[in-house]
Amino acid sequence: MTRLCILTPHPDYEENWRPSAEAFRALFGDDLDFRPWTDAGDLSAHALVLPLLVWGYQRRAADWYCALDAWEAAGIRFANALPLLRWNTDKDYLLDLAEKGVATVPTIESGALCTDDLAAARAQFGSETLVIKPAISGGADGTYRLAAHDPIPFDVLEREMLIQPMMASVATEGEYSLFYFDGAFSHAILKKPAAGDFRVQEQFGGHEVRVEPPALALALAQAALAAAPLAPLYARVDMVRDDADGGFRLMELEVIEPSLFLSFAADGGALFAKTVLERAIS
Description:
By secondary structure, the chain is an alpha+beta fold. 28% of the residues lie in helices and 23% in strands. A 5-stranded antiparallel sheet has the order 10-9-8-11-12.
């Protein structure tokens, strides 16, 4: 029998991951194991490992990198290859994709965020309002919108951060997410923030609707996937419309633990389950 393993958060993580685990159980049945990524034990008996619930890994980045190294040394087979997970951990991969010609949200990396960095970013972007986020982040942890005279929040001062211009269309239209399994498009959603906010996550009042993605969004998603160092088995491609030209810019290519929003897929996640099981037995 095929034996799959989904890695879950550290036991002390505050958010309840079990409803998500049950959704995966409904797709894969009892031939599915769950292990905390911080103490996963011997994974060699599993045909395929998916880190789909490693929520909070960004708070233990050193441990996460050590775990990736250990799993790679042990030859553990992951659905998305371990070198790809390592590449995707630090969001400076956006700079890599931009160098390869992918249209990304303009991004500057700061090794130790200070006010001079913000001034330089405002001059480069021509935008008074900026968004700052940790280079290793998830769920909008440590992400802030800063207007012209806003101070740097203390918790991210002199931290390694990414600086981007505030994309106005996040508030006016929302953020598109397109989902791909083994390179095939599955479904798309539009994530909309609460009034007055810019974060689209549900914990901040955001909500989602199913959409048919525009052709330009599909083209950008394909370009981002093609530019990744290895082809992902599963991926979520986040993007936002560029108000200047009506095109799209990549916000994130998530291949570690993306929320897959399978309830919005017309097939209820059948394509996802099929691609995972086929990879497990190949």
